[in-house]
Amino acid sequence: MLYPQNNLKRELMELNGLWNFKLHDDQGDCNEVPLKKLEDTILMSVPASYNDLSENPKVKNHVGKVWYEREFYIPEHWNGKRIVLRFGSVTHYGKVWINGQYVMEHAGGYTPFEEDISPYVSFDKKNRVTVMVDNILDFTTTPIGKMEGKNLDYYFDFFNYSGIHRPVKIYTTAKDYIQDITIVTDLKQEKGIVHYDIEASGPQTVKVSVVDEEGQVVASSSSGVRGSIEIKNPTLWQPGNAYLYTLLVELINPDGTVVDIYEEEFGIRTVEVRGKDFLINGKPFYFKGFGKHEDTELNGRGFNEVANIKDFSLMKWIGANSFRTAHYPYSEEIMRQADREGIVVIDETAAVGLHINLLGAIMGGADKRTTWEQVQTHESHAQAIRELIKRDKNHPCVVMWSIANEPAGDEEGAYEYFKPLVDLTKELDSTRPVTIVSFQTATPKRDLIYSLIDVFCLNRYYGWYTQSGDLKAAEEALRSELTEWWETDQKPIIITEFGADTMHGMTSTVPVMWTEEFQVEFLKMYHKVFDELDHVIGEHVWNFADFATKEGIIRVGGNKKGVFTRDRKPKKAAYLLHERYNQLPDFIDINK
Ligand code: GCB
């Protein structure tokens, strides 16, 4: 799905800023609400989560529907064009009306949706857009949740921020237009091969050119909507050293006039899992970095470009080369930033929490372990995979798809649930490996889905949730499990989560749990074990920064496993990682 852009043939306008907002309080039939202007509204910022922007406690913890509305003009000269209204994301469900007329709806809180609104808008007066947002989850949605009376119980460890989370844009195209572009790159000897596949409407021909960073056309083709272009001695997209080419696609009328243009940035790079190695451009890559969240003060999960710039700066300072989009697709803007900055991304769907009674599983006492009998997410999960790949397939930063985080991989039915989803992912993109991030109880002897995936991505909390505070015992358990994985199936391992809750400023000469010193010792212990084992090819600390969660007995003002505080101040562990990550090269020295 193409990102909205402004170019010689396309115009772009943003609908971000102040909207009118209200909670849904039984206003009657939802389809009638948009027929007239909303009344008794408050101002709300878009994009943002609404939860932290009002002193009314009902807003913070609201469960159910809310309404957003604003007015806008469409320039007269847009008459006759496709006029597309596009939401970067609405969490978790959005329904949209223009001037009281139904336009579109979308389920899935972290991917974009759009529609041609030209049939609904006026060119001679103001238009009104109304959006209903619903944050209720159930056992059919991705992610899952469950209503308990008037409260929503959800199965993931981050606050259920809601609202219009990402930019709202309107863009134009001609009636015939470039609908989609797929780019796959390869390397053969000194040549870069760019395979392209264009979807376009109308009887036009398509011209495709590759433009380098200096704006020079290095190759082109007019041979149709599908083909390959060769680039001699290409500059590769490398971790830490990004180089982006642009695929300039032009849609041309039989009379020679250009009707539409799209410029899609891409990188020339290859990805392959071979033996115990994860090869990027043929060289064994070592993942250093974090599981992250889109989470900041005030904005909540809302797009926050200032924070994104700061986070990439901190990741570079600390020496990280990669992160995982735990636990949902991040904004398109972050993905573009990662492309540009040469940061490698493991791209995850919002299938988090497919594990009923997860706490019971790890703490003991989980008698009912029937996740796969209870959830009915096959359809929404498949849709989440389709939308993620459609949106992110051309990003060179994305090197692997993670189709779920910590499902009940050791419960009966897991294989049958995941087999079709892994097959679907591979069918949609045969160029990237696929993983399912595993939960601590899914050990080699118990896990039922490891044969389906290409790289073992393990979340492990030895020394925190188990062997709590006892780093000696934790070290033995960790080493023993990681060794057993290699004996079971020779695939590379990335530790996608390991971390300890740490209160910034809480210190002790003897490292005890929750202190900054304990976090340092905890990480050092893990580092020692990783450095002994060749098949461990990456480490992502949980988490980059402290983040908001629902209230509960195991969280004090949120999850404190951040290496940085929520406002991005370094804890002591940040300096440990700064030293380690800046010494560890991005690529493993195979001669060592
Ligand atoms: C996990 C989850 C993550 C939690 C983390 C924790 O395994 O994947 O969402 O936040 O543990 O801190 O408990």
Structural class: alpha+beta
Q: What is the helix fraction of residues, given as a range?
A: 10-25%
Strand residue content: 25-35%
Describe the global form: globular
Q: How large is the count of helical segments?
A: 10
Q: How many domains make up the 3D coordinates? A: 3
Record the strand order, biggest sheet.
29-28-27-26-25-32-31-30
Bound molecules: (2S,3S,4S,5R)-3,4,5-trihydroxy-6-oxo-oxane-2-carboxylic acid
Low-confidence stretches: none
Number of strand elements:
32
Q: What is Rg?
A: 24 Å
For CATH, the homologous superfamily of the largest domain is named as Glycosidases
CATH architecture of the largest domain: Alpha-Beta Barrel
Report the major sheet.
8 strands, parallel
At the third CATH level, what is the topology name of the largest domain?
Answer: TIM Barrel
Instruction: State the name of the first-level CATH class of the largest domain.
Output: Alpha Beta
Query: How far is it from the N-terminal to the C-terminal residue, by CA?
Result: 43 Å
SSE arrangement:
Elements (H helix, E strand, L loop, with lengths): L11 E3 L2 E7 L18 E5 L10 H4 L4 E8 L9 E6 L2 E2 L1 E6 L2 E7 L5 E4 L10 E8 L10 E4 L2 E4 L8 E2 L3 E6 L4 E11 L2 E10 L4 E7 L5 E5 L4 E7 L12 E8 L5 E9 L4 E4 L2 E4 L2 E2 L2 E5 L13 H14 L3 E3 L7 H10 L2 E5 L9 H6 L7 H4 L3 H15 L5 E8 L8 H15 L5 E4 L18 E4 L11 H18 L4 E5 L18 H17 L3 E7 L29 H12 L9
Parallel strand pairs: 25-26, 25-32, 26-27, 27-28, 28-29, 30-31, 31-32
Antiparallel strand pairs: 1-14, 2-3, 2-4, 4-10, 5-9, 5-14, 6-13, 7-8, 7-10, 11-12, 15-16, 16-19, 17-18, 17-20, 20-21, 22-23, 23-24
This protein binds (2S,3S,4S,5R)-3,4,5-trihydroxy-6-oxo-oxane-2-carboxylic acid (GCB).
The site of (2S,3S,4S,5R)-3,4,5-trihydroxy-6-oxo-oxane-2-carboxylic acid has 9 residues, from loops.
